[in-house]
Input
Amino acid sequence: MFRGGALAGGVSLCLSLGGCSLVLDFSEQDDAGPIDATLFDGPDAPDPCTLFEPNDMISDAVQIDPGNYGLGICPAGESDFLRFTVGANADVTIRISFSNTDGGGDLDLRLFDASDGAVVVVSEGFGDEELISRTVAGGNALAAGDYIIQIFPFSVMIQNNYLLELTIVEDMTPDAGIPDASIDAT
Output
């Protein structure tokens, strides 16, 4: 049996196919632990509270590449600022995953345009994840430039570890943004 993470509502799913079975149990568990616990455990895991620090102010934003990062909001009430660069119109996904047990660990996510400090978008949900997605297909892809991610607690009393996933898929179309010269406008 495979045991999934905790979800509210006690939902359980079972799938059987040709002699194989998969059972996903999404019932609530008191001892489920944080979603990203494996990133913070083990002898080689970096301290999530010190990785990329100091980065508590927008002027201290640390440059990162696409990837997965185990980080933390510590001490309580601080923010983390991280910078990334988009070289062309791109699909960008920014996701933070964390444990928000009984609302005591809620984190939020904000994206700034680094050129002028304007807020591009904010994600302020109440679950165990925040997500920002900007895509070419959605008509809201990020233009070339630098951007700053802010991870911040819902309340100044919150301290929590989180997993940051940054994915960037740049537009690789040969003539992206250039009208097709083969079309005769006459």
In short: The chain is about 0% helix and 40% strand. The helical segments are 37-40.
